[in-house]
Amino acid sequence: MELIKVSNLRKVFPKHKTAAVDGVDFSVFKGEVLGLVGESGCGKSTLGRSILRLTDAQEGRVLYKNEDLLKVSKPRMRGMRKDLQMIFQDPYTSLDPRMRIGETLEEALIIHENLSGKKRIARVIEILEMVGLGEAYLRRFPSELSGGERQRVGIGRALATDPEFIVCDEPVSSLDISIQAQILNLLMDLQKAKNLTYLFISHDLGVIASICDRVIVMQSGKFIERNSCEEIFKNPKQEYTKRLLDSAF
Fold first, then answer.
1. What would the mean pLDDT of 13-40 be, rounded to a whole number?
2. Beta strand 165-169 with 84-87: parallel, antiparallel or unpaired?
3. Which bin fits 53, alpha (ψ -120 to 50), beta or left (φ > 0)?
């Protein structure tokens, strides 16, 4: 089932002459992990942020359950964010350093869920356990956590409202290789357990290979190749894709 349908999406930043996202079209299907890969600066993160209206695209449509996310009112979009979440690239900057971990996770529940204080705290502890942390982290600040632990909090924050669709924007690129594998395994386990749908953004085809069902290759704001993960790795059609593969393996 088609969950997200993007048509002719275009984003141009005022200071740049070329489009960061240049008229792309694609669909994301319920329960799949769709990989979006390309070198830094090719427009991947801008595309992910544009889909969720964290940055404003100039043209195009993003359909979710027959509603165009680019045209719904701001109050309506705030309500829909319960179902549409993002895991950010940098766990060091995506968490408020002044807020304890419990407060960070509780914030999403206060906005989107009608729960009593006791039920919110119980839910926060459940989220912490779900991402491999636990109640001991409730009162800690981000500065007391490792990079991998912070990213687990970021994943927990995205999952707090039981979303249906998550944009994973380079979620392991800033982590050590040994920690990357742990976070990828966590994301895969959660995806299967909750039947989540991911748009998984990465510059690394090695990472994409471990988690994605289909892959889109992006270069300079455009899509240049798309196929099943298996076919992209076995039989890449474009020289650019072959270079990405050579750099990953």
1. 92
2. parallel
3. left
Per-residue confidence (pLDDT) for residue 16, from 0 to 100: 76
Are 33 and 191 spatial neighbours (Cβ–Cβ below 8 Å)? Answer: yes
Task: Report the C-alpha gap between 161 and 69 in whole angstroms.
Answer: 19
Q: Which residues pair with 84 in a beta bridge?
A: 165
Q: Contact 48/167 with Cβ under 8 angstroms?
A: yes
- The predicted model gives 100-106 an average pLDDT of 94
Spatial separation of the C-alpha atoms in residues 122 and 102, rounded to whole Å? 10
- Which tens digits make up the pLDDT trace of 129-154? 999 999 999 999 999 999 999 999 99
Distance, in Å, from the CA atom of 94 to the CA atom of 240, rounded to the nearest integer, reads 31
Q: What pLDDT, on a 0 to 100 scale, did the predictor assign at position 12?
A: 93
CB under 8 Å to 160, separation ≥6 — which residues? Answer: 105, 108, 109, 112, 123, 124, 127
First to last CA, the chain: 33
Residue 221: strand, helix, or coil: coil
Query: How crowded is the C-beta side of 36, counted as CA atoms within 13 Å?
Result: 30
Residues in CB range of 131: below 8 A, 6 or more apart: 152, 153, 155, 156, 159, 186, 190
Token pair 């204080």 in the structure block, residue: 117
Crossing angle of the two packed helices 117-130 and 147-159, in degrees rounded to 10: 130
Strand order in the sheet with 2-11: 21-29, 2-11, 59-64, 67-68
Q: What residue has token string 């920690």?
A: 179
User: How far apart (Å, rounded) are the C-alpha atoms in residues 103 and 202?
Assistant: 29
pLDDT at position 10 is 96
Residue 43 token pair: 């427009």
Mean pLDDT taken over the chain: 93
Q: Which amino acid makes up residue 4?
A: I
